Amino acid sequence: MSVQSVSISSSHTFSKPPVSAITLVTNRGVQGDCHFGETVQHQSRLHIKPAPTNLRQVHLIPIETLEKIDQAAGKVVAGSLGENITTRGLDLVHLSRGTELHFKTTTSNQVAAVVVLTGLRNPCPQIDKFQTGLKERFVVRDAQRNIIGRLAGVMGVVKQGGIVTPGMKIVVVKPAVEEKLEVV
């Protein structure tokens, strides 16, 4: 389990360009990212008063999901969906709420940063603006067409700040009580 890519954007664009490193700040998110802050920064939620706590400080998605979607849709790469951290070898959407992801340096094996999972990212209509028909590829439906799963990644908050770079190891620390991730 490792970090495949990291991405950031200071403006509310849909995709975020990959960079060599991101800095996570405790209780705030990714320094310099448009979603940085203790309260919600997503444009669709800025009207809520008082502003709710930002449970969407960091967006993570597995590269395997993007690769699978890319085979069918094309042009979906790390950063395409606005995620900050693209992982490899980690089934994020099936982890529990409260799971901690410890990002470890490869040289010293020290924990460089910790993100706590808060919920699932709901595939939003902006995905279809990026690529027509793509949103539907990020939902799982049953025979009656009810949504029973979401594949657009997970959201989290920063418990311990630090620098995250591609190639870092990720160690999963499960919570004492497991709760299914819900949309945040």
Automatic annotation (TrEMBL):
InterPro entries: MoCF_Sase_C, MOSC_domain, Pyrv_Knase-like_insert_dom_sf. Pfam families: MOSC. PANTHER family: METAL-SULFUR CLUSTER BIOSYNTHESIS PROTEINS YUAD-RELATED (PTHR36930), MOSC DOMAIN-CONTAINING PROTEIN (PTHR36930:SF1). Residues 17-173 form the MOSC domain. GO terms for molecular function: catalytic activity; molybdenum ion binding; pyridoxal phosphate binding. This is MOSC domain-containing protein. It comes from the Eukaryota.
